[in-house]
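<discrete_fold_record>
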Amino acid sequence: MCVVSIGQAPKYFIESRPALYAPLVGNRTIYRITHYSPQCTPHFRSFAAKNSLEFDVFTGQFRPKYEHFIQNSEYRNHWEWYIKNPENARKDLERIFKWRSEMQDFARTEG
């Protein structure tokens, strides 16, 4: 089992209360993925730019699957926002690209 915090605040909260969370978390490492808030958009954008070739390949492979998912699931309302502006699609794909990398990093650590 792996414990993942979305953003730094939940990670800090759990780690600062070991007596309360030890029965649930034990001595496991608490990993963190970047929060999805608009404030973090520069982090996602920068990561995609630094890894532009890999991001382009990822986008080409993942975009059709993602678009099918948001069109045909409970996220259909998201589709309306997504298609309004190409920048919206890019933001979503940049987030997913960075999260994939972050999750791969701690998956390697967990073995």
Residues 70 and 77 are 8 Å apart (CA to CA).
